[in-house]
Design goal:
201 residues, four-stranded parallel β-sheet, 8 helices, 10% strand
Length: 201
């Protein structure tokens, strides 16, 4: 039997369904909502419903948007012949926040994982191929994560895109800024050495 009244216990149970939120964190959030003014709860509830009602995938890049196509795809200045391919919306956000990329994106909505039954047809790979022809893409930057699945996906895409005559590049992988070599795993060190760049004098 719960120590909390049923409405509060139901809120805690709902919060534990979110990723990364365990029982204690959910109870802490629920108690905070309870102690706060009604406006917080109403704003939170309205935002949750608005997200479910208004957010959808962009029909061009497959990132989240409330206006189709999304702002990046609508921006003519971003049509510079460069397309960055990422696994999911969070990856696009990270690249966009860096300010280092000024082209357009393509969100795969996952990675190839044969053991989990995720093949090319389950991702937005067909749509990527169509965009190459339709938008006159000259360079595709593969920005999948450096995991086994991400590397498999990057290799698959590189082979497919090279057959189309597109310049394919891969984001650099290796030692992070502030990193310490002695704490790096073997794969990270291997990538750092393989992806080394010349130093100009």
């Amino acid at each position: 039997m719960s120590i909390y009244p049923p409405p509060l216990q139901r809120l805690i149970e709902q919060l534990t369904r979110l990723p990364g939120i365990g029982q204690k964190s959910a109870a802490r959030v629920a108690l905070y909502v309870l102690k706060s003014d009604r406006g917080l709860a109403e704003g939170l509830a309205a935002s949750l419903l608005e997200v479910k009602d208004r957010i959808r995938f962009c029909s061009t890049c497959f990132n989240f948007t409330d206006d189709d196509p999304c702002a990046v795809c609508r921006n003519p200045e971003r049509a510079n012949g460069s397309l960055c391919v990422v696994e999911g919306p969070g990856d696009q956000l990270a690249i966009e926040e860096s300010g280092a990329f000024k082209g357009r994106y393509h969100v795969l909505q996952g990675v190839l994982s044969p053991l989990d039954g995720i093949g090319p047809e389950a991702l937005r790979i067909g749509e990527l191929a169509a965009r190459i022809d339709r938008e006159g893409i000259e360079e595709v930057i593969l920005a999948t994560n450096p995991t086994a699945e991400g590397e498999t996906t990057a290799s698959y895409l590189a082979e497919m895109l090279c057959r189309k005559g597109v310049r394919v590049t891969r984001i650099s992988l290796g030692i992070p800024m502030g990193g310490d070599l002695k704490y790096m795993d073997a794969m990270t060190v291997q990538h750092a050495l393989t992806c080394r760049v010349p130093v100009s004098s």
